[in-house]
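ok so i was messing around last nite and threw this chain in just to see what happens. nothing serious, just curious
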Amino acid sequence: MLAVETTHHALSLLFSSSARVAVLRVLMLDPARPYYQRQLEQATGLPIRAIQRELERLTEAELLYRRPEGNRVYYQVDRDHPLFPELRSMVLKTSGPVDAMRGQLAVDPAVRAAFLSADEEQCLVVEQTGESTRVSPPPNIALSRQSADSFLRGLREQDLEVDAFLKSGKDLLGRRDDVLWRHIESAGYVVAKGAGVP
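result:
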């Protein structure tokens, strides 16, 4: 199996633009989510002008939808585009284990939030109450699941497992508009986002 760096390089050569690869990687890992330019800038570390240029090119290629909303313009992957399955597959195959797992979590409708431990050996998935995830973690990451109700109860009761993930772990999805985050923030936690998470 090729090293992640080698496969990243192969993907960059294939697309001839490392900026385009970086933008595609973020978009394809969580394809159901709409992004605005500053989120992509934060996730990729690229200058805003490079983000704008690549979004324009990907929109022209009809890989993305462009939707103005107020003073922001959101971009989202067109999952009905004929190249979508292959592009997403290439991104997942050239990703490390954490990003590959993140890609699975992002498209699972049962997942509301996911946290990676500081040592990257455990992942806590918060599921929609009454639903179960269908995620297969990589062999080196232990996956634990909690319903949203159980997670909120653990938050209130200062459960040690929940506390450890929120104090020193990382947010894998960045879906801070979920009501769970209001509870997390009001409990005084400031959770870092994982690498590449907008």
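not much to say yet. The beta strands are 35-36, 64-69, 72-77, 111-116, 122-127, 142-147, 170-171, 192-193.
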